[in-house]
Write a structure and sequence with these properties.
This protein is an alpha/beta fold. It is built from eight helices and nine strands. The strands form three sheets. A five-stranded parallel sheet has the order 2-1-6-5-7, with helices on both faces. It has a two-stranded antiparallel sheet with strand order 3-4. It has a two-stranded antiparallel ribbon with strand order 8-9. Bound molecules: S-adenosylmethionine (SAM).
Length: 232
């Protein structure tokens, strides 16, 4: 069974965007994963198709209505049965996304992703529908759609058969607690700068050792926080 992603959004036209191209797009075409978008406005039942209202207690902006979003989420149940995929709400308040979380999502059967807009989502629907809040970083976007695209891009490349080489994935940043070592390709000399000779030595052991040392050095310089964790 392929990985199934359902997106609830007020902007279905923002998908598949980059997910329809390159690695993710080819995997989508092959059926390694599926993507379905659901327009939240279709679940508004008044004649103006209202999806938002002013914040209780006052303040700027609007809030996504719980009744409309609740109906949209419930529409994904088949014969009244809700599947066991995690239901995520993209949110700056959420748990910061990391590679371990991506790996866990990729190991499951899929995800349901709610994209917020306006000032956010009524708290009651977050609780009542057990939405797990996920943040892509400590900054505020105008909507959850770009965040959902980032999350799915990171997940899809880890799905079985999607990446050309499973080995390259193991060597990547964050996979072993370190950032990736520097990479080089031909020409051997470019603007007077040489590829480190060890990489051209044909000695796999020496290459691995060099890469590991470089990964430690890069991590220590660029992300001392990660390096501290790695060392402990
Ligand atoms: N008023 C909210 C706050 O201060 O936390 C920000 C709402 S933001 C303008 C609208 C929507 O964009 C959010 O509901 C969420 O879905 C999405 N969003 C914004 N920043 C995000 C982030 N860093 N990670 C994930 N989603 C984000």
């Amino acid at each position: 069974m392929s990985f199934a992603a359902d997106i609830l959004t007020l902007y279905p036209q923002m998908f598949p965007a980059s997910l329809g191209m390159s690695i993710a797009g080819r995997a989508l075409e092959r059926g390694d994963w599926s993507l379905a978008t659901h327009h939240i406005r279709d679940f508004a039942i008044d004649k103006h198709k209202t999806v938002d209202d002013s914040p209780a207690g006052g303040g700027p902006g609007m809030v996504l209505k719980p009744d409309v979003l609740g109906r949209a989420i419930d529409s994904l149940a088949v014969d009244g049965v809700v599947d066991d995929r995690p239901r995520l709400l993209m949110s700056p308040r959420g748990k910061p996304l990391n590679q371990a979380m991506v790996r866990e999502f990729a190991a499951g059967s899929g995800v349901v992703i709610v994209c917020g807009r306006f000032e956010g989502v009524d708290e009651r629907v977050i609780t009542a529908r057990n939405l797990q809040e996920v943040s892509i970083g400590d900054y505020v976007l105008s909507g959850g759609e770009p965040a959902a695209i980032i999350l799915l891009d990171a997940i899809v490349r880890l799905l079985p058969g999607v990446m050309g080489s499973d080995l390259s994935e193991l060597d990547e940043s964050f996979e072993n607690g370190l950032l990736e070592h520097p990479q080089y390709t031909k020409p051997r000399v470019w603007e007077g700068l040489e590829i480190p000779p060890v990489l051209l030595s044909g000695n796999h052991g020496a290459v691995e050792k060099w890469r590991h040392e470089q990964a430690k050095k890069v991590t220590k310089t660029k992300r001392p926080d990660l390096f501290e964790k790695y060392e402990s």
